Amino acid sequence: MRPFRSRLGRFTAAFDPAEATLLADLVDQVRTLLAQRCGGAEDDPLAGLTGMAVGPSTPPDDPAVARLLPAFHRDDEGLAAGLRMLREPEVIAAKDDAAVALLDTLPRGGGTVRLTEQTARSWLVALNDVRLVFGVRLNITEDATPPAAAAADPRGPEYAMYLTYRWLSTIQESLVQAMLGDA
């Protein structure tokens, strides 16, 4: 990957074909996790009358999805459930829109990425969502320290996942730095 650079309000970076394929696959996996959550809503009579999209009132069972969709209120379970039902569909839609923006601007065969400020912000959201899923799956508590399972076997799948997490962090940091340099 050639790091992001800023020029005239645009942000560019280059990805080789394997990097572009990996990034697209990871973003698609997060989209799939969130899409599965959309199917969990019960039929709601008010939603039927108003046409409002409603989500489930219960938190996600999958800890990674729960990290992507945290509680809307920590102290009142009833309020949290109601807010989740009403707001979660639009949170998922916003996350999906960001993922689609990343996928639409990522050359699948590798090459130069050219982002506006709006698409750069979408990239940050989508990259962060993928990193959050990795963080939960690997039980990462510090970015720079491999989790115990990864450190135990530097040739194992957990270590490869940790290296992927670090690579995603590098992409995200590169884009943030380019955006801050443009500000």
Structure write-up:
The protein is mainly alpha-helical and 183 residues long. It has one domain (2-42, 93-182). The protein is built from seven helices and three strands, in the order E-E-H-H-H-H-E-H-H-H. The protein has helices at 17-38, 45-50, 63-68, 77-105, 117-138, 148-152, 157-182, and strands at residues 2-7, 10-15, 111-115. It has a three-stranded antiparallel beta sheet. A hairpin with a 2-residue loop joins strand 1 (2-7) and strand 2 (10-15). It is globular and about 50 Å long. The mean pLDDT is 92.
User: What form results from the Cα inertia axes?
Assistant: globular
Cross-sheet strand order for the largest sheet: 1-2-3
Overall mean pLDDT score? 92
What is the total tally of β strands? Answer: 3
Helix and strand content put the structural class at mainly alpha
Order of helices and strands: EEHHHHEHHH
Oligomer: single chain
Unreliable spans are none
Count of DSSP H/I helices: 7
Biggest sheet architecture: 3 strands, antiparallel
Return the domain count. Answer: 1
- The amount of helix comes to 55-70%
End-to-end span in angstroms? 23 Å
Rg, rounded, reads 18 Å
How large is the share of residues in beta strands?
Answer: 5-15%
Using brief descriptors, characterize the structure shown.
183 residues, mainly alpha, 3-stranded antiparallel beta sheet, 7 helices, 3 strands, 9% strand
Fold topology:
Blueprint: E1 2-7, E2 10-15, H1 17-38, H2 45-50, H3 63-68, H4 77-105, E3 111-115, H5 117-138, H6 148-152, H7 157-182
